[in-house]
Design goal:
Elements lengths: L2 H35 L7 H32 L4 H18 L1 H16 L7 E4 L2 E8 L3 E5 L5 E5 L6 E3 L5 E9 L5 H17 L12 E8 L4 E9 L4 H18 L12
Antiparallel strand pairs: 1-2, 1-5, 2-3, 3-4, 6-8, 7-8
Length: 266
């Protein structure tokens, strides 16, 4: 067998093996993706997250396989690989410097998706922007603010993410009261309002427990603050908090108890 025939057979062999590895990788990654997606409802963000992560993993592994195959084929053809690798390395460094923000965004997005830090529909605060998550991708996170603004945040800018609607939520209420008020009576009124709210079939399912009165939390120049908390279903803390404030206010009005407005230095 001539040398060229030998080289041709080796090249064909490397190509065939690379194609076989490609099919195996696609099959294995597809199986993993299917198992991950099966845990979520059809068309849900969980399925989209699984598809994105597995797609990225498949692309990276296949790129490694075919780059390795190309280098082996070039070596068989007596093409000097070292200068090409050196040139590619220099070019990669130049591109890396120019696209480091993009790379940082993609890497951060990968770990956000992998760790499931937040999902579509969650209310979060990231990079000094708060809102409801409308989309999570490898490069950006899209939020809809309370005023309707659409915020697009680069994932590389996210250092801390605060999720206000994961597992459970909590509403915190502050009652600013005058010093001459009967604190125990106010606490009793607030507890009664909380019990009444939880027994209401329209609001009870949103509450995960009774309100917790923490007591007098702070003293100001002209008032004292009584703090209360209540745990709710994810995302329902604001609605429950507003209704609880309304009911407490109505009960305090009947008792002729008024709140104290904050002073100029409070």
């Amino acid at each position: 067998m001539s040398s060229w025939a030998y080289v041709l057979v080796r090249v064909v062999g490397i190509t065939v093996v690379s194609i076989a590895i490609t099919f195996v990788i696609r099959y294995l990654v597809g199986r993993v993706e299917h198992r991950m997606a099966a845990r979520f409802a059809a068309g849900s963000s969980g399925q989209k997250r699984a598809h994105t992560l597995m797609g990225l993993l498949r692309a990276v592994v296949l790129a490694i396989v075919w780059i390795t195959a190309a280098v082996m084929i070039l070596q068989l053809l007596d093409v000097p690989v070292a200068p090409l690798l050196a040139t590619a390395g220099i070019g990669g460094i130049a591109i890396g410097f120019g696209a480091q923000s993009l790379v940082r965004d993609v890497v951060s997005g990968f770990f956000i998706l992998l760790e499931n830090q937040y999902d579509v529909g969650d209310t979060i605060e990231v990079a000094n922007v708060a809102g409801i998550v409308e989309g999570v991708g490898l490069r950006t996170t899209v939020l809809r603010g309370a005023d309707g603004s659409r915020h697009v945040v680069s994932n590389g800018e996210i250092r801390i993410s605060s999720n206000q609607t994961r597992i459970f939520s909590r509403s915190v209420l502050i009652l600013p009261l005058p010093y001459d008020v009967d604190v125990d009576r106010v606490i009793a009124i607030a507890s009664e309002a909380g019990a009444d709210l939880r027994s209401d079939p329209a609001w009870g399912p949103d509450m995960l427990g009774d309100i917790e009165v923490l007591g007098v939390d702070a003293f100001g120049a002209a008032r004292m603050d009584v703090k209360l908390t209540v745990e709710t279903r994810p995302g329902r803390q604001w609605a429950v908090g507003r209704e609880l404030r309304r009911r407490i206010k109505l009960r305090l009005d009947r008792e002729d108890i008024s709140f104290v407005a904050p002073g100029p230095t409070e």
